[in-house]
Design brief:
Elements lengths: L1 E6 L2 E2 L9 E8 L7 E9 L2 E8 L4 E8 L3 E9 L9 E2 L5 E2 L3 E6 L2 E6 L7 E3 L2 H27 L9 H14 L2 H11 L4 H8 L7 H8 L4 H4 L2 H13 L12 E3 L5 E3 L7 E7 L4 H17 L4 E7 L4 H11 L4 E3 L8 H5 L7 E5 L5 E4 L5 H9 L2
Parallel strand pairs: 3-11, 15-16, 16-17
Antiparallel strand pairs: 1-2, 1-5, 3-6, 4-5, 4-7, 7-10, 8-9, 11-12, 13-14, 15-18, 18-19
Organism: Chitinophaga horti
Subcellular location: Cell envelope
Protein name: AhpC/TSA family protein
Length: 379
Amino acid sequence: MKRMIFLLGGLLPLAATAQDKSFTLDGKINDIGEPAKVILSYSAGGKRVSDTTALQSGVFHFAGKIDKPVQAIVMILKSSANPRMAMGMGYGGEILGRDGTPFYLDEGKISLRGATIKEAKIEGSAAQKDFEALNLAKKPVVDKLTAINAEMAPFAKDRESAEYKALYDKLLATLKETGPIETAFVKSHPNSWVSFNVLTGKSIISDPKTTEAQYKQLSAHLRNSPDGKKFEERLAAAYTTSLGAVAPAFTQNDTDGKPFSLASLRGKYVLIDFWASWCGPCRAENPNVKLAYDKFKGKNFEILAVSLDKDKAAWLKAIQDDGLPWLHVSDLLGWDNVVAKLYNVRAVPQNWLIDPEGKIIAANMRGKDLEEKLAKALK
């Protein structure tokens, strides 16, 4: 069995990390009739682990150590499969394009049995039971999202069409339906690592006050863990860009390499929009941002876009291709963008709307939300 331990930024040499919970995962699926590898991916000790073993007549085995129950992915890579084929994930977290599934690794013996990995029953993990309960509760919403996505497919080539925009707005509204389900789950499962990950695993903390109240519902055991303490630091930082706070000041170079400051826009309503040329959801959202800009640009409103690009040519091309006539800045450091770190940006697209005094009045608007917020502010 081969094991690689790596950070997202690059490979690390094998190293012993103190872990105190051992697990085994024994799997049995139907024989697929060709050589294949089984890949198990998860996080342990702050590193990403990718463990690989051979699939022999449908049987495989893994063993390892974890410091806490963690979400993992197990999937098959057939010898006949294209290793470069992208692996996607559906709205319910299901794996698309390969035979695999997400699940929770927990200490002790875990078994996986079924015709395929996707169809398999996973037993022996206490956290997995909670994970399955949450997925079951979210299934009606996931089914609706999948159906809307299928409706959108025929219009994907023309995202400016009325049909696509209507379905896109419907998709965004439906996505919000998972929120109350997750909130109820966290409240009813205060000692579950699944609850902890649901609450703390979100890339964006739009409402730190509400998030903090939900976080306090978790057990002291979870809140006092090293991960809990790290999240408390992140939560505290989120208040600096919460509603009512003054947007942190910054200066960064524009497309001509000249410094441009947020302070120079004081007296206007400003949308600070974090994006990147390589970000599909950002590019999909740009037409909506453009509609809002065209409608309100003459009413004391401006957009200052901060790019998380590294390649200047790609950044400039995306601005031109998408027809984005507003202000653009970047230090071309990608995720190390100084302004992105100042605003605690961990995902894009992400945005903040500030008033003429520099106070944040709205955040993370998608679809028609931006137009509606601006209509109220600029009436």
